[in-house]
């Protein structure tokens, strides 16, 4: 545990010692802020759906996915490129500890980036006329699915970063992987296979977001994201271990 | 009495990549306190061997034991016994020197109680006190090398693996790092990989010469240079008609050939200018007294007469078939 915390701290602080970390957070917050204002003004006259305002925008999710691709790309690709992977993996730490620490650091960065968006919920509750009638549940379940999807895609980004020494290649692979899963529902029309259609509908993030942001907790989705995260982390460990049998 | 037990035992070590065989069935041992050099041209298999010793790569075949422990099966225990400085010294440039060394020390299981004292020791040894608060990325390559060495030393390892520790440094930095490595050799077992012949000759008690993944020679630098060089070179600076001088030198018993060059540049035909004669002779023949007697007899002025010292680079060239080397 001590090693994981040490590695996590180093990786997390590294985000804030380069312009990338600040740039990603600032751009994400500016775009999500503008988007929040836009949705708020559009919904002002109608009956408000807090989950839709907070999590129902394509801009929010596009920025979220881009952010994940950017913050996961250096995790292993940069270490491999600079050679620090050699000193890291010859220290008395296990490959699993390294993978878990890097995952935790990137996930902690995502949490830190999302924390300021809690202000949006506070603004809605403070200033909306029907605030007393608003349910708090969609906010909680909405953030829950954001964190689940965040963990799932962070693990995917970690895996793609472990496969290459190029950060650009890692980011591209990660973004392709995320896009396929995120928009899986749209692919079913192209495939015309009943079994595949059902599978794609199950893994599509869009439907999960709609459900959770309306306060509906789908346990299948929870299991899917948690097991997917575990699978990607396992594959990342195997990818790092592959130096020993390649 | 100094402990001279075997600390590294490598048996039939082979490493094959998809691109070819990097290390081809090498076996060697190193004893505690020994400074062992791995010498060879680029692509000889030095770095791969170092990476396997450090546990970063696994062998395709064969076994490696450090202090009686298999590097893969007991990887965690072995890593605690090793200080490894990879080629090109990878560091985290955004960290400060002290912060980096503390991070590495904690990662290597150094207790908080021991940390402060050990940090002071390695910083003194590696000359890092004056830059301890500086950001690593803003320091020179020489300091990077020192930080890498400090990192390798921080957990007081029994074995130091130094892969090309002076590569890319300027002459002053090279001298400083060599002195430092020499000092480290008094307390630690050191395996030093280098393609600088002079470095191996200066620092190592024993040298393994690698070529195409195989050990082609293994002994002390003195023995290697003495045994493998089968000729002597004598250099003489003489004023005299150069054709006559060359013929006279060639006629000496044991001489094999003569090369002439001007002491200031190209060959000089004038009988009034100094020429430099390089006389190649048999291994057992020391023709200096004969050259002196001949010059005196003919009335030719002689101002320098010396036998070229045998160098490891000559031995290396003979062993590896004149592979190009950095002759620093």
Structure description:
- The complex is a heterodimer of chains A (246) and B (328).
- Chain A has helices at 2-15, 19-43, 50-55, 58-72, 74-82, 84-89, 95-114, 118-127, 137-163, 167-182, 184-191, 194-203, 205-213, 219-241.
- With 246 residues, chain A is an all-alpha fold.
- Chain A has one domain (2-244).
- The model of chain A has no long low-confidence stretch (mean pLDDT 85).
- Chain B is of the alpha/beta class and 328 residues long.
- Chain B has helices at 46-54, 75-81, 97-107, 112-126, 141-153, 171-184, 197-203, 221-228, 242-250, 288-298, 312-320; strands at residues 6-17, 20-31, 35-39, 61-66, 69-70, 82-85, 159-163, 189-194, 206-211, 214-219, 231-239, 255-262, 274-282, 301-307.
- At the A-B interface, helix 1 and helix 6 of A face helix 2 and helix 3 of B.
Summarize, please.
The complex is a heterodimer of chains A (246) and B (328). Chain A is mainly α.
Q: Biggest interface and which pair forms it? A: A-B, 24 and 29 residues
Helical proportion of chain A, percent range:
over 70%
The count of domains of chain B is 2
Name the beta content range of chain B. Answer: 25-35%
User: From the 3D coordinates, which CATH architecture of the largest domain in chain B would you assign?
Assistant: 3-Layer(aba) Sandwich
Overall strand count of chain A: 0
| Total helical segments of chain A | 14
Q: Structural class, judged by helices and strands of chain B?
A: alpha/beta
CATH-defined superfamily of the largest domain in chain B:
P-loop containing nucleotide triphosphate hydrolases
The H/E string of chain A reads HHHHHHHHHHHHHH
What general form of chain A does the structure show? globular
N- to C-terminal separation of chain B? 36 Å
| Number of helical segments with 4 or more residues of chain B | 11
- Largest β sheet strand count, sense and barrel closure of chain B: 6 strands, mixed
Unreliable stretches covering 5 or more consecutive residues of chain B: 323-328
Note the run of SSEs of chain B as H and E: EEEHEEHEHHHEHEHEEHEHEEHEH
Count of DSSP strands of chain B: 14
SSE class of chain A: mainly alpha
How many whole angstroms does the radius of gyration of chain A measure?
19 Å
CATH class of the largest domain in chain B: Alpha Beta
Give the uncertain stretches of chain A in residue-range form. Answer: none
């Amino acid at each position: 545990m001590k090693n994981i915390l040490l590695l996590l701290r180093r990786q997390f602080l590294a985000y804030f010692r380069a312009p990338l970390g600040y740039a990603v957070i600032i751009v994400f917050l500016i775009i999500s802020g503008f988007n929040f204002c836009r949705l708020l003004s559009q919904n002002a006259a109608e009956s408000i759906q807090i989950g839709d305002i907070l999590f129902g925008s394509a801009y929010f999710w596009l920025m979220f996915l881009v952010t994940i691709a950017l913050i996961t790309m250096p995790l292993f690709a940069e270490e491999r490129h600079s050679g620090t992977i050699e000193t890291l993996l010859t220290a008395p730490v296990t490959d699993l500890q390294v993978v878990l620490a890097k995952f935790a650091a990137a996930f902690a960065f995502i949490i830190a980036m999302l924390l300021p968006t809690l202000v949006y919920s506070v603004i809605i509750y403070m200033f909306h006329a029907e605030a007393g009638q608003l349910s708090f549940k969609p906010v909680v379940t909405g953030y829950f699915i954001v964190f689940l999807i965040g963990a799932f895609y962070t693990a995917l980004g970690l895996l793609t970063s472990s496969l290459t020494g190029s950060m650009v290649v890692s980011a591209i692979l990660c973004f392709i992987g995320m896009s396929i899963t995120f928009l899986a529902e749209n692919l079913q029309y192209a495939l015309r296979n009943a079994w595949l259609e059902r599978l794609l509908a199950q893994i599509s993030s869009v439907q999960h977001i709609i459900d959770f942001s309306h306060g509906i907790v789908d346990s299948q989705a929870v299991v899917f994201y948690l097991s997917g995260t575990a699978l990607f982390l396992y594959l990342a460990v195997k990818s790092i271990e592959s130096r020993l049998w390649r | 009495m100094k402990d001279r037990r075997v600390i590294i035992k490598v048996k039939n070590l082979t490493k094959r990549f998809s691109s070819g065989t990097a290390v081809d069935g090498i076996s060697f041992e190193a004893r505690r306190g020994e400074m062992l050099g791995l010498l060879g041209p680029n692509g000889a298999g030095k770095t791969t061997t170092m990476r396997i010793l450090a546990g970063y790569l696994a062998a395709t075949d064969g076994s490696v034991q450090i202090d009686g422990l298999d590097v893969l099966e007991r990887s965690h225990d072995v890593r605690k016994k090793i200080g490894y400085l990879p080629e090109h010294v990878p560091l985290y440039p955004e960290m400060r020197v002290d912060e980096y060394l503390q991070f590495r020390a904690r990662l290597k299981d150094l207790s908080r109680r021991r940390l402060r004292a050990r940090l002071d020791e390695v910083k003194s040894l590696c000359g890092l006190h004056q830059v301890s608060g500086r950001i690593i990325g803003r320091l020179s390559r020489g300091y990077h090398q020192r930080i890498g060495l400090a990192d390798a030393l921080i957990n007081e390892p029994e074995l130091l693996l130094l892969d090309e520790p002076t590569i890319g440094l300027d002459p002053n930095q090279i001298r400083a790092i060599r002195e430092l490595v020499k000092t480290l050799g008094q307390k630690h077992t050191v395996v030093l990989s280098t393609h600088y012949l002079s470095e191996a000759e200066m620092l190592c008690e024993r040298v393994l010469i690698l070529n195409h993944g195989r050990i082609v020679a293994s002994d002390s630098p003195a023995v290697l240079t003495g045994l493998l060089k089968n000729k002597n070179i004598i250099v003489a600076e003489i004023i005299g008609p150069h054709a006559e001088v060359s013929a006279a030198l060639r006629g000496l018993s044991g001489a094999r050939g003569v090369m002439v060059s001007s002491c200031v540049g190209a060959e000089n035909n004038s009988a009034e200018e100094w020429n430099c004669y390089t006389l190649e002779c048999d291994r057992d023949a020391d023709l200096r007294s004969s050259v002196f007697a001949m010059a005196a007899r003919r009335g030719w002025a002689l101002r320098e007469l010396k036998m070229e010292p045998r160098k490891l680079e000559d031995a290396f060239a003979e062993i590896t078939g004149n592979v190009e080397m950095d002759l620093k």
